[in-house]
Amino acid sequence: MRLGHKSEKEMTILSKKGCLRSTGTGKLDYYDHCIFGKQKRVSFSKAKHRTQGILDHIHSDLWGPSKVPSLGGKRYMLTFVDDFSRIVWVYFLRLKNETFPMFKKFKALVENQIGRKIKKLRTDNGLEFVESEFEEFCTINGIARHKTLVGKP
User: Fold this and answer.
1) Mean of the pLDDT values across residues 71-90?
2) Is the dihedral of CA 141, 83, 125, 110 positive or negative?
């Protein structure tokens, strides 16, 4: 019998159709939550891309460990998302420490296939992305790092 904040008019219609157990409906009290529930949501404005081309800005995250391993025994999922094209690359890993070697493979693959260099890498500042070897590799290869704390834009 959950009605989801119906109006008096809707309650009367339901009552006439015999959908309510009561014999009729009366005047409903003013209820703040009904008003808030019926308000229109404001849509987000369209995002403006500041990147000029593919591989200018890559977002990356490592998810896991999964409670249940994949058929291949992998428990982590490493994602790379290109900000310009929104192309997503997904790699499945057995261990968290495979992140850096997989990033190097990803970098070699996409730069060879696309003919452009990765300019900026954005991560959530997880430990897999802040080890000194990873930082040094990005510095040597001219990849700017943008680290965001988890839950912060």
Assistant:
1) 94
2) negative
Sheet arrangement for strand 144-147: 88-93, 76-82, 58-63, 120-123, 144-147
Total domains present in the chain = 2
**Residue whose entry in the numeric block shows the structure tokens 């990356």:** 60
State which residues form the domain around 18.
8-38
Per-residue pLDDT tens digits for 83-135: 999 999 999 999 999 999 999 999 999 999 999 999 999 988 787 888 889 99
Q: Encoding tokens for residue 137?
A: 């590799």
Query: Would you say residue 35 has pLDDT above 80?
Result: no
Domain match, 84 and 136 both:
yes
Rounded distance between C-alpha atoms, residue 3 and residue 20, angstroms: 10
Rg value, the chain, Cα: 26
- What pTM does this model have? 0.65
Parallel, antiparallel, or unpaired for β 58-63 and 120-123?
parallel
Residue recorded with tokens 């339901």: 14
d(CA 1, CA 131): 56
Token reading at 72: 């291949």
Residues 69 and 125 in one domain: yes
